[in-house]
Amino acid sequence: MQRLAVADLGSNSFRLVVYGYEPGRWWQHADEIREPVRVSEGLGEDGRLRPEPMQRAIRTAELFDAFCKANDIEQVQAIATSAIREAPNGPELLKEVEARTSLPVRVVSTHEEARYGYLAIANSTTVADGFGIDLGGGSVQVMQLSDRELVADDSWPLGAVRMSERFLPEDDQTSGKAIKALRKHVAKQVARADWFHTGNGDRLAGIGGTIRNLATAAERRAGVHHPGSAQGFKLTVEALDDLIDELAGMPASKRGRVPGIKPDRGDVILGGAVALSALIETSGFKQIEVTEAGMREGVFFESFLGDRDPPLFPDVRRASIENLANRYQPDLNHPRHVAELSLQLYDGLAAAGLLEADEPDRELLWSASLVHDVGTAVDYDDHHKHSRYLIENAGLPGFTPREVLLIALIAQYHRKGTPDADELGTLAEKGDERRLSTLSGIVRLSEQFERSRDGAIKSIELEARNGTVVLEPDLRHDASVAIWSARGNAELLEKAIGREVEITGPEGDT
Fold this sequence. Notes:
The chain is α/β, with parallel strands linked by helices. Helix content is 45%, strand content 18%. The strands form 3 sheets. Strands 8-7-6-9-11-10 form a 6-stranded mixed sheet, sandwiched between helices. A hairpin with a 4-residue loop joins β6 and β7. It starts with a strand and ends in a 7-residue tail after the last strand.
């Protein structure tokens, strides 16, 4: 495994993220250190960084440097953004960091910052045409995407720390007048950018710690409690404004106790929330799609996908599934064949009129098939349960929280047990009981057809005869183990489709 560390020296927090990866196969978020440095704290009219925040920044940079050296991480990139970029004494801070550490700090321009944000969004969501927002502590980067390319960008001084210090001074009560003034200020800035406005079918994606915290808090309020971050969550304006009302009604010292909000963001989260709400509404959107990725991932993707121009995954959802599969399985021959057989069964059932063909369901089936066995990396016993845990906690960029849980449940029930749509909780939709049973039953049967893990069954023909579904395997060689195992595991699919399943043997016996 190779490693690359990216240090993001932001206006609100400094974060060092270590990525582990195998070129061309997989990558993962391997380690992280975060410190709420708040380097932009107390900026006056002169825009100069204050002595105490500068000292915090230097100490944190020394910590990052020591961590990389202690862990023998040779590939290190460090980027500085808004606060350090704009401060007249920013070079003075960087000179001190250079003298005390070996961090190769690079001050990125507003366009470079937007480009890294774009790479994060384009590689972690399915937004092809639309816009992106990176809400930081000092500034907001706004990007326009067309056919997955960055076509326009701008930077506005509307960050959470800056807006909080200017419009929402710390006290026990935030007035409606102050919030209204902040909204008006943001709207005035947005109005100058006539290109930043929703069109037909345009989507809006958001990155940055403030947006992730707000989305996580909104999820908790809505009763959604999936593991990890708010990856794929759609934060509506209504939900955001409800959260703003809650935050405004409590002292800044208590806002960090709201589930989903980090304690060290409590004093600036309201300013960020109001700024975000104004950005969304003024540009004509109704919601923002949240991704866990950030500018750091943009820097990583530039390296990991460096052989592509632009450095993008061709298909984000497929890349997410294959990434997870490759992380925990050294050889994908077995899961790929299970996926192939599963799709053959699904298409056969659809052709026979026993289920309604649905491309999203078909994609969920393929996804679950490819990662159904990742839990064996933990242990073979109960590996179906381990698979569910790993899938739920992997994030799976490009998928919604509901889709991630569906994939996890289908994978869990590939082995045994009866799927229950109640496990979807508030994410459940009409038809999920049959959906889960059918897709789980298909993967379970396909797994058994590949039980000997030698590709003995090349393909499967499906035919509906006199109220019975007959499966005729095309054999490469002896498939006695696979056919025996499949015949003993057809019950779940039978119940889901309401038909008996017969599996023919080498001589046509059933």
